[in-house]
UniProtKB/TrEMBL annotation:
Keywords: Cell membrane, Membrane, Transmembrane, Transmembrane helix. Belongs to the chromate ion transporter (CHR) (TC 2.A.51) family. PANTHER family: CHROMATE ION TRANSPORTER (EUROFUNG) (PTHR33567). This is Chromate efflux transporter. It comes from Paenibacillus soyae. It is a multi-pass membrane protein. GO terms for molecular function: chromate transmembrane transporter activity.
Length: 403
């Protein structure tokens, strides 16, 4: 037992260090994980890590957090997965909750540096679209799916529009791309089980996996029926549903969270965009933006409920799919669905760039110039996002003083 406790504490310590230092978004996180877990500590081999990354890219939710959870499970069982998640996530949660508490005493409608954070959000989301569009919409068919998805969610603004668009895009992808082959990654014969080897003694049984998937589906169906009982249940439903339906990485969470949080009146548009800008400046997963929203609407208990709700689907899905990944990755139908969904994700992000980000952040010529400069610094000068966010805040102050 003592050796297990030592192992679990090591998982918490290593993931906590990564949570404090992992700037740069999901792709950068995966690089940090590879260096720490594969190259340095050899908790997984190269093939096992590639399999785990492929699985988490297939699932909805925060891919880098799911990879961290999977590594924790492989290393230390279910508790190891939970500790790995906590270590990687809590630093970002604490920083964003503290930011919200500091923000609560200011007039967000007049602070120049907060306007600058909104301009930084323009640059960051545009950069995400730039990169994702090149990868996920490389041909005219997928670009068309993205454009139709963007138009649909802008013209049909309801609580169900994003979900409907994702489902329809999956069906279109199944129809158009079901014969394109298996998912990318190591060949099916190269790895029999994720994390195989002496350094990875833990396995998830199929019974536990089925139970996890059952809990995931039950919560997805029951929480909408329970949300009217209590405001915290309403928050749990909104964030759980968001965490269950977001494909494509952290930035894609923006339109769903904006619809849920601002649409429900939990926070204002200015608070939302200021928090999103701040989320770019802290390490760790972007999904912790939910912690900021929860704190802004219901204090510390709101932050806890929002954080737990948005990340719970990620944990349940990783546990539920690890034993079945080989079957999924060999399925052309699964790849076709994912191809269509990924194209629609680019469209959803494009729509979010216009509304709410662009419409509320770029209100003058100076704002446009600042956003353009920030975008160039991010895309072509390769500055890290946190530095671009600080530059945006400084630009907002300059614009305010010059007005």
């Amino acid at each position: 037992m003592r050796s297990k406790i030592k192992l679990w504490l090591e998982i918490l310590r290593v993931s906590g260090k990564l949570g404090l230092l992992s700037f740069g978004g999901p792709t950068a996180h995966l690089g940090y994980f590879h260096n720490e877990y594969v190259k340095r500590r050899k908790w997984l081999d190269e093939a096992g890590y590639a399999e785990l990354v492929a699985l988490c890219q297939f699932l909805p939710g925060p891919a880098s957090s799911q990879v961290g959870i999977g590594i924790g499970i492989v290393r230390g069982g279910l508790l190891g997965g939970l500790l790995s998640f906590l270590g990687f996530t809590l630093p970002s949660v604490v920083l964003l909750v503290l930011f919200e508490w500091l923000l609560s005493g200011t007039d967000v409608s007049r602070a120049g540096w907060l306007q600058g954070l909104q301009l930084a959000a323009v640059a960051v989301v545009a950069h995400a679209i730039w990169g994702m569009g090149q990868k996920l919409t490389p041909d005219r068919t997928r670009m068309t799916i993205a454009a139709v998805a963007a138009g649909a969610v802008l013209l049909w603004q309801t609580a169900y529009s994003q979900v409907a668009v994702i489902l329809l895009a999956g069906l279109v992808g199944l129809w158009l791309y079901r014969k394109t082959g298996a998912l990318s990654g190591p060949s099916p014969d190269s790895v029999s089980v994720i994390g195989s080897g002496a350094a990875s003694p833990y396995r998830i049984g199929r019974g536990a996996a089925i139970a996890s998937l059952s809990i995931f589906a039950a919560l997805l169906l029951l929480l909408p029926w329970l949300r009217d009982w209590d405001p915290l249940l309403a928050m749990a439903d909104s964030f759980y549903r968001t965490g269950s339906l977001v494909f494509g990485g952290g930035h894609v969470v923006l339109p769903l969270l904006e619809r849920e949080a601002v649409g429900a009146g939990w926070i204002s548009e200015q608070q939302f965009l200021a928090g999103y800008g701040a989320a770019q400046a802290v390490p760790g997963p972007l999904f912790t933006f939910a912690s900021y929203i929860g704190a802004a609407s219901n204090g510390l208990i709101g932050a806890i409920v929002a954080t737990a709700s948005i990340f719970l689907p990620a944990f349940l899905l990783v546990v539920g799919t690890l034993p079945f990944w080989q079957l999924l990755r060999r399925s052309p139908a699964a790849q076709g669905i994912l191809t269509g969904v990924n194209a629609a994700v680019v469209g959803l992000l494009l729509a979010a760039l216009y509304d709410p980000i662009w419409k509320h952040a770029v209100v003058s010529t100076a704002d446009f110039v600042a956003a353009l400069v920030l975008f160039i610094l991010l895309v072509f000068w390769k500055l890290p996002p946190w530095l671009v966010v600080l530059a945006g805040a400084a630009a907002g102050i300059v614009i305010e003083l010059a007005a």
